[in-house]
Amino acid sequence: MAGIGLIKVTEGDRLTSWFLVGLFFISAMITICGLKTLAVSKSYYREAIFTKTVVERELGLLEPLPNLQDARANLSIAVTVGQRDIEAILFGGKPAGRMISPGTVVWNIKTILWIMIFIECAGAIVAAVDALSLELKGQAPRPLAGVVLPLEG
What we know:
The chain has helices at 2-9, 14-58, 81-84, 86-90, 105-137. By secondary structure, the chain is an all-alpha fold.
């Protein structure tokens, strides 16, 4: 994230440090929204799998095909081991609100989002400490590069 690099570049600038606190805070809030979206989308996915499995059962698509020995040899559309666990899907083993299972793609995305939240919070804390230390020292903010300040007098 660009904000982490800005912490070092803008060291000693109170205004920029407070800006970075806000930037990191907003970034963390956006990432938290991503976590919530991930949970909702997983719930929708589970409901879709349940409905798909019910329709396949009612249409007879779960019945094994003749002359094929593989248990997967039927006309259902099941692309993962979890989608082939018909008993668990139809009879309560996989409710829509169930926790996300470790080792799945969704679990990995969730882990990455938590790491991002940690980094963003750490960045906000570092920027806040920098800004507060400048406040306590009473240091005036540095002028922005390229900005010409009017001379007094």
